[in-house]
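Support request, priority: normal
Reporter: lab tech (M.K.)
Component: structure prediction queue

Hi team, I submitted a job for Glutamine synthetase type III from Pedobacter jejuensis yesterday, and the status page still shows it as pending. I've pasted the exact input below so you can check whether something in the sequence is tripping the parser. The sequence length should be 724 residues. Please let me know if I need to resubmit or if it's stuck on your end.
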Amino acid sequence: MKSLRTIALKEAQNRISPEVKSPSAKISDFFGANVFDKRKMRDFLSKDVYEKLISSINQGELINTDDANQIATAMKAWAMSAGATHYTHWFQPLTGTTAEKHDSFFEPSGDGAIEKFAGSALVQQEPDASSFPNGGIRNTFEARGYTAWDPSSPAFIMESKAGKTLCIPTVFVSYTGEALDYKAPLLKALAALDKAAVDVCQYFDKSITKVNASLGIEQEYFLVDESLFNARPDLLLTGRALFGHMSAKGQQLEDHYFGSIPERVFSYMVDFENEALKLGIPLKTRHNEVAPSQFECAPIYEEINLAIDHNQLLMDLMEKVARRHHFRVLLHEKPYAGINGSGKHNNWSLITDTGKNLLAPGKTPKNNLMFLAFFVNTIKAVSEHADLLRASIASVSNDHRLGANEAPPAIISIFLGSQLNDVLDEIEHSRISKKIKEDNALWLGIPKIPQILLDNTDRNRTSPFAFTGNKFELRAVGSSANSSAPMTILNAIMAEQLVKFKTEVDKLIKKGDKKDIALLTVIKKYIKESKSIRFEGNGYSQEWEDEAATRGLSNIKTTPKALDAYLTEKSADLFNSTGIYSKREIHARHEIMLENFYKKLQIEARVMGEVANTAIIPAAIAYQNSLIANVKGLKEIGVDSKVSLDIVKKLTEHLEIVKTNIDAMLEERKLTNKIEDTREKAIAYDEKVKTYFEVIRYHADKLEQIVDDSVWPLPKFRELLFMK
Ligand code: ADP
Ligand code: MG
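Reply from support: The job had stalled in the queue. We restarted it manually and it finished. Here are the results:
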């Protein structure tokens, strides 16, 4: 019988890309075609209701039942005119993916059937949600959750060959009001940030009435041929290769990065980009990444809630469209040991309703003081809550990536670039004397900040949180993550920090300081207090790990321990003051994250055992048997050769080690599964079960290097990485 690998290799060699037809040569012709955007709202709604909906989008005002009915009818009319038959509330439960439950517009009526979509069905739904992770929030007697419409993210139509569905972005909460998703806490953090930031803006510009965070999400991913993927149970079930010796050629020649895009991949990219563009996702950039078969795409930044919805939708689309091209997309942070992992850089800044980017240095000293206020408060916020930010990017898969092969370490530090570092040093060492306090004009004051920062070009890519000219870039986020988790934290800590800043500045003003002097005094104080988190050097180096330790910065390498930061008193104060999580909610979330962590390790451990026992060991034994026959045969004809015998010995050694460790790991799992406390269980999985992975893999990979290639059952790294 032919092995699955043999069949897969044959199929992978004979791929023909499906034809990809762009709807039009001009993207602007079809961009947003499947979105109920403002233009369509205007076409389908009365002027009065349109205006109410816009103000609800912009200011969060509530929509009454009558208006909701009109909006629902308009949405239905638009969706049906585009061919949709069903609608769904689209939400982001804590599983990490998106969820949908489709209902048709169709309803039987007395004399036939009609298509209906009431305002109540738009505004709220009750999916049977008892099987979503809830961390113990919902007892069975109140096993209800409901989804509620988020008007700030527009409805859209998901197309598939079989039909079209109107999707309505929603939050997902329990019957008792606790958030069960990623979106609800994010919206709360954004509301807190808006208020705090507007208050601080008032020092500088009274016309600002709203501040929103903007986000541009770069998405890295790997592609692999579908048949090869299916012939690897580890990729199929865990998204990463648990076995596999690195290919002789990997990324050492650096010949893939920004290289010409292979035809088959290009065709896939164009296809999913078209789908994304129709859904209003403003994709702009595509290129090869560093590792072979690794790629990246990035949209133009958007308002943060929308940017995150779009990224979730994009990941979903990328997976769906990949199948049309007989590819599988790997969004895992570390699909292949030994080469680069994938991240999701979160480019973040704050933008006012007057169109000003608060993190862009201005032309005048006054604008620069405003910039410095937001800039320094960001640094201060991150330095105060570095552990929480670290926790917010923690996951079982990101543990493999952080600190390994070209990814930032688990130490949170901030890179500013030499010019801004100098500016902060200058302020820190400047004296705000009594004389200056009496007469502002004496102080030449705020250092000159060039509008175009030279450091944009020599950006430090080793930093987990880097200032890149007019935005901060959080690079520690993993490729498969929902960005809401870190962005909820980043915006919440910024909100809390700005409130504290204002309190301190107001106190000084009350004491008689002039406004600018008060602002600068507090800024100066924060620069001093947050100094230890600033680092301009090579974040990948051992020296940095050592130095960070002497600076007292945390370096928590594994998820179950990193997650402790969610439960500290400092975090509780933050959650309470910003209103993003109640005690019950955060404990539930903590529990869910730990469960997710150990369950994934549990699955990986099982897959390892199964693949070793049923594929790797049998292949090695089969080869061993053929060698034994050879040894016997040589002896019979009187040839004295040790080649086969030596290989048999080596094979046997590695086989022994693989088998013993698989068995030992199984025993360890049995013990670990008995642990009741979730945190302890997660730690045990990490420190006792996962430790077997390395030794098992090492020796299995040695077997791969020895066994006859024609009988090896699993597609090899060279095939996974280079066949496309
Ligand atoms: P690089 O790979 O060099 O970091 P990219 O061009 O791939 O840069 O991605 C940069 C991302 O940052 C894009 O999504 C871009 O839209 C986004 N971006 C640019 N300016 C801002 C801003 N002010 N706020 C948020 N995101 C921004
Ligand atoms: Mg980037």
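The chain has 25 helices and 18 strands. The CA atoms of residues 410 and 557 lie 6 Å apart. Let us know if anything else looks off. Ticket resolved.
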